[in-house]
Automatic annotation (TrEMBL):
Organism ancestry: Eukaryota, Fungi, Dikarya, Basidiomycota, Agaricomycotina
Matching PANTHER family: NAD(P)-BINDING DOMAIN-CONTAINING PROTEIN-RELATED, PROTEIN YEEZ
Domain of life: Eukaryota
GO CC field: cytoplasm
MF GO annotations: aldehyde dehydrogenase (NAD+) activity
Record-given protein name: NAD(P)-binding domain-containing protein
């Protein structure tokens, strides 16, 4: 497993520890922090200190694993390829295809609307023909395609999880996740699983952020302002990513028994405590970090 200290990986870890057969599992986690690795050892988790960007290490650990869960950077091509090389070695040794569960994202569905239009296109993870039409040039797609090729070659079973918006404050020992599945059956091109439970617009989110800032005495208008071209360049590298469309239906996980409990209302309700947390972090460090654009957009 990679990035157990992260938002998604921490929840996966918590679920594994709670599993009734956990004592029979042999779990190895790759951790950047020696202190957190030491903590994992107290939870009966094998910990290796290192980085998922260390390709020789990733390949070695993967070659020793029956299942790899990647919850780190969805776009780290080198790490994904190293993992696949290791899993191929595992297959050559055992003659049994190991499983690779990879966290991608619904950003792979985004269009080029640049804030000018909506879309009627909704991707369903049961519609394999539709998913196969996703352009190879889409974000995350280069990594996803390598997993699919490995599955087609027969040396690995790939399962690609595509969370949508991950929101709220982390609550578990090492993080939190947006969605999970009880047992993955379809793999390869049939094994794409969307984590979805409703839709929202970025206008709804920006408006709620604006309202929260007014409530906290930090804003004067509850209506969000439009970014200028200069601000888009500063905060988004020139591309209005928040003006794209990505719509999907998470049908596969529901067929497996997944029953999501959080809705769009919960997402909007999470904004105030999240903004308060960001502002506390600013008081502590003097910086809003990578999420500066979210608050700036609503001021």
């Amino acid at each position: 497993m990679t990035l157990l200290a992260g938002y998604i990986g921490g929840e996966i870890l918590a679920k594994l520890i709670q599993h009734p057969k956990f004592s029979s599992f042999h779990v190895t986690a790759l951790m950047r922090s020696p202190a957190k690795a030491e903590k994992l050892c107290t939870l009966k988790i094998g910990a290796v200190v290192g980085s998922h960007s260390d390709e020789p290490l990733m390949e070695k650990l993967s070659s020793q694993s029956n299942i790899v869960i990647a919850a780190a950077d969805a776009d780290n091509y080198g790490a994904a390829m190293a993992t696949l090389r290791g899993l191929k070695k595992r297959y050559e040794t055992t003659k049994v295809p190991p499983s690779f569960i990879h966290t991608s994202g619904t950003g792979v569905l985004k269009d080029d609307a640049v804030g000018q239009s909506a879309t009627d296109t909704i991707y369903d993870d049961l519609d394999v023909a539709q998913l196969n039409l996703i352009p190879d040039t889409q974000v995350h797609r280069n990594v996803d395609l390598e997993l699919l090729r490995g599955d087609e070659e027969g040396y690995v079973k790939s399962y690609i999880i595509l969370p949508s918006t991950i929101y709220g404050l982390a609550s578990n020992i090492l993080g939190r996740i947006s969605a999970s599945c009880s047992h993955l059956r379809q793999h390869g091109r049939e094994g794409l699983y969307f984590g979805e439970n409703g839709e929202y617009t970025m206008y709804q989110v920006a408006k709620r952020i604006s309202e929260v800032l007014v409530e906290l005495g930090l804003g004067t208008k509850p209506e969000p302002a439009t970014f200028t071209a200069k601000e888009i360049g500063k905060y988004y590298g020139g591309y209005p990513y928040m003006g794209t469309n990505a719509r999907c239906k998470g049908s596969q996980a529901r067929e497996l028994g997944w029953r999501p409990s959080r809705t769009t209302d919960d997402l909007l309700a999470s904004i105030k405590p999240d903004v308060e947390s960001i502002l506390k972090e600013k008081e502590r460090t003097g910086s809003l970090g990578l999420r500066d654009y979210a608050v700036r957009a609503a001021r």
